[in-house]
Automatic annotation (TrEMBL):
Family to which the UniProt record says this protein belongs: Belongs to the peroxidase family. Ligninase subfamily.
PANTHER family according to UniProt: CATALASE-PEROXIDASE, THYLAKOID LUMENAL 29 KDA PROTEIN, CHLOROPLASTIC-RELATED
Binding site residues for heme b: H200
Subcellular location, record wording: Secreted
Organism: Mycena venus
Gene Ontology terms: biological process: cellular response to oxidative stress; hydrogen peroxide catabolic process; response to reactive oxygen species
Enzyme class: oxidoreductase
Record-given protein name: Peroxidase
One Gene Ontology cellular component: extracellular region
């Protein structure tokens, strides 16, 4: 009797050990890939679909739009409005997809309709949250651009509860005081918004001057280089397209576009030192951007309930 109880116990013990080997606890995902947690496996499937069918493995239009969307969703977060008794937005919560019918009407979100629809379909197909898909696609987009860094990706954002209010996304005609106050309200330092503007190294304008869609902010919009910071410091002499528009200033080259906000941030004493530092140091730009993006992706979110799926990022 005693012997049989013991052998049952040891059988249970042996089974438990076999199911959770002490070495290599990685979960098996699709195509022979593995992840530290099975909950990350779905992101490999999202990655394959996103890269093949939306980005086409390029640092092109859709990748640029996905990166811009990651900012517009995350910056929709204002503790200041909350302290005044209003809803201040949920930050990187996917509200721009879930409440797209409202937020896509905001002037700042012009041009984001098609990327919002495409990411909504992907999220629905794989059963991931809208907040997650937006930050995931932003991180993946950067990897398609030459020299684009790997950025941490955390998964598990809950569904947005309300639309972010209008007026939280900085506009290119805002002055530096307004821009810095807005991003500081959301939780970003002046240096961090300068770090994040490395994104304008892989960016086009389409709606500031609609007569010249696709005019880039530096001459190498598929390369994540720091030429952008240096170009913005050059004297501006030409007006590309059909005259100067609200939020636009003169550019150094006929096929380059300069935003008034970039011009002002590059020259304001609160931010010009850091702007120049990034313009002189590609490695600093890349590493600071990766850190600031990871922070931006958590605005308004409780990082304690998220899990790290960075290993999925190519
Ligand atoms: C002071 C803050 C910022 C202002 C005022 C600003 C403004 C703008 C404007 C006006 C455009 C052109 C949009 C169009 O014509 O369609 C643009 C494009 C873009 N922005 Fe920003 N931006 C800011 C910060 C950021 C940040 C933090 C990110 C990402 C982390 C970002 C990513 C992009 C990208 C990727 C594009 C190109 C979109 C495309 O090629 O279609 N921007 N931005
Ligand atoms: C910046 O813009 C805000 C809002 O339009 C305005 O109230 C403020 O006076 C401006 N500040 C400067 C320094 O121009």
């Amino acid at each position: 009797m005693k012997f049989s109880t013991l052998s049952t116990l040891s059988l249970v013990y042996a089974t438990t050990v076999a199911a959770t080997p002490s070495f290599s606890q990685r979960a098996a995902c699709s195509k022979g890939r593995t992840a530290s947690s099975a909950t990350c496996c779905v992101w490999y499937n999202v990655l394959d679909d996103l890269q093949a069918n939306l980005f086409e493995h390029q640092c092109g239009d859709d990748a640029h739009d996905a990166l811009r969307l990651s900012f517009h969703d995350a910056i929709g977060y204002s503790p200041k409005l909350k302290s005044q008794g209003q809803f201040g937005g949920g930050g990187a919560d996917g509200s721009l997809i879930k409440f797209g019918a409202i937020e896509l009407e905001y002037p700042s979100n012009e041009g984001l309709e098609s990327i919002v629809m495409a990411e909504k379909d992907l999220a629905d197909k794989y059963g991931v949250s809208y907040g997650d898909i937006i930050q995931f696609a932003g991180v993946v987009s950067v990897r398609n651009c030459l020299f684009g860094p790997r950025i941490a990706f955390m998964a598990g954002r809950p569904s947005a509860t309300q639309a972010a209010p209008d007026g939280l996304v900085p506009a290119p005609f805002d002055n530096v005081t307004t821009i810095l106050a807005r991003v500081e309200d959301a939780g970003l330092t002046p240096e961090e918004i300068i770090d994040l503007l490395a994104s304008h190294s892989i960016a086009f304008q389409e709606h500031v001057d609609p007569t010249i869609p696709g005019t880039p902010f530096d001459l190498t919009p598929a390369i994540f280089d720091n030429n952008f910071y240096r170009d913005v410091l050059l004297p501006g002499s030409v007006v590309p397209g059909s005259g100067l528009h609200t939020g636009e200033v003169k550019s150094p080259f006929p096929h380059e576009f300069r935003l008034q906000s970039d011009f002002a941030l590059a020259r304001d004493s609160r931010t010009s030192g850091h702007w120049l530092a990034l313009g002189l140091n590609q490695h600093l730009m890349v590493s600071r951007f990766a850190t600031a993006m990871a922070k931006m992706a958590l605005l308004g979110q409780n990082s304690g309930i998220l899990h790290d799926c960075s290993e999925v990022i190519p």
